[in-house]
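Suppose you are handed a protein chain with no further information: no name, no annotation, nothing but its sequence. What can you learn? This example shows the usual starting point.
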Amino acid sequence: VTKAESIDEVYLQNSSSEKPAFHVYAFLHNSGETEPANVNVSKTFMSEDVWYDGTIWTYEGLEYWPDNRELAFVAYNYAAESCITSHPTPTTFEFTIEDDISRQVDLLATPFMMGLKDDADGDAKVNLVFKHLLSRVGFSVVASHPSEDVNIAIRSIKLCGNFPAVGNVDLRANANGLPYITPKSGTEVNSYSLFDDETCFEANSTL
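A reasonable first move is to predict its three-dimensional structure. Written in structure tokens, the prediction is:
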């Protein structure tokens, strides 16, 4: 669960070399391999910050595809770096949901993409499809007794349950094409406030 601003393509395009949109890794792997878990992530071919220059997605430097070798690609949004508390390998990290709303960050990542090779023209392209890894909460307000003279002010919304604040992320995709996220035991909170007294949602009673 997160109260962070939801990141979309427009958000990612508002990027630069100083504020990249996402970080992408590429790994060499054996030809014909289809299981992400079998990719040796120590054989990193590329590790780059990528941003949008107003026309195309770009990065610094130049990377050459290896001849007759297959690559596996994976990426995640650069803004998530601020909530990553440990990063033991290129494809695994610990992600923390901050208590401070202003510091919370949406987390996007791509499924592990296997078996990619350069094309015959030497101009191969990698189409990265990002997926949201955190839950998003929506709500609506319905007035029991509609009246044009009454305004509704929601001062707080609290979810009650068992919410892990820290999770271990493995970007190597599972059977559903999504990265693994394992909640970290002992980091749970029993309630989660979406608003506080200073941040209210106001609407008329016709909602």
